[in-house]
Amino acid sequence: MHKKWTAYLISGICALLVVAGCVCGILFTDPVLTDNQAKTLRILLIVCGCSAGYCFLVGELSNNFSQMDKLWSILPVAYVWIVAVRGGMNLRLVVYALIVTIWGIRLTINFARKGAYRLKFWTGAEDYRWSVVRNNSILRARPLWILFDLLFISLYQNVLVLAICLPALGCMESGAAFSAVDGIAAAFALGFLSLETVADEQQWRFHETKKKLLAEGRTLDKLPAPYDLGFNTTGLWGRMRHPNYLGEQGIWLSLYCFTAGAGVAEHGIFHWTVVGPLLLVLLFMGSSSLAESISSKKYPQYPAYVRQVCKYLPLRKFRR
After folding, report:
1. Dist CA 264 CA 18 (whole Å)
2. Res. 1 pLDDT band, cuts 50 70 90
3. pTM check: above 0.85
């Protein structure tokens, strides 16, 4: 475990340096940014920096390290509308911003019903994974936890949230009309958004029913199937271990494809803004491994579920 979490920390720092290097290189050396794009990026970076500072200071003072979790669904909406307004509100940017807004509203509601938001914004339920990470034998040392909070929770995640929105900036000055490629990208983004919505709703209903049954005084093994397993194997969750994660990654990869419709991607595929969506995929690799590690310790049948069901592909159905 020591080596594992040390590797996660080092990987996060390295990824942060990669993103920072890319952004700085674009800002100061890359001629592909117009003056308007460069000024817009500076505005976004100021918002990002203020958010990172807020998350770190408030997280440390309140001992609630889900400050960035609360902003995760809010900041991208602000970022893409800033880009859309400064880009002249052309159709491509407006469609892009509307999809991100729908995504943000859905995710905010989903997190709010878990008790994350309060009138005192710094309070509320903390994501359960942070307590597990905080109790790691290495990160229990206060200086190391502060470093982890600063570099990964506050700084890296804020930079990542900005990075996944940068394809909109890449499309900002395109003179190309809204095309079939844009329409296909939007359709895929909405499809993945629907997948994530259904998956989250199925997960919510399962665990709410399980809580009610447990509140009646029953033990987990005395609950009716499928609740006696403790984890969800109904609906999409019986076919994939992380349908919600698949939806989330698919949304941002689909939105990146707007750069192809805008004609700014080299050879119709590659554009420097792909760094954000790709780093999001890497983040979910670590996040899914952490979640599965926790569930495997908590639920005896979870390792069998991992062996039988693919992470993202609905190739097999879970059999008890």
Report:
1. 22
2. very low
3. yes
127 in a structural domain? yes
Q: Tens of pLDDT along 104-159?
A: 999 999 999 988 888 888 888 888 888 888 887 788 888 889 999 999 999 999 99
* Structural domain includes residue 282: yes
Query: Sign of dihedral through CA atoms 154, 160, 163, 164?
Result: negative
In the chain, the amino acid numbered 224 is P
Q: How many domains does the chain have?
A: 1
Q: By three-state DSSP, how is residue 315 classified?
A: coil
Q: Which residues contact 115 (CB under 8 A, 6 or more apart)?
A: 124, 125
Helix runs in 87-140, H state only:
91-112, 128-134
Task: Note down the domain range covering 275.
Answer: 2-308
At 53, list the tokens.
């500072």
- Asked if residue 87 belongs to a domain, the reply is yes
CB-CB contact of 137 with 1 (8 Å): yes
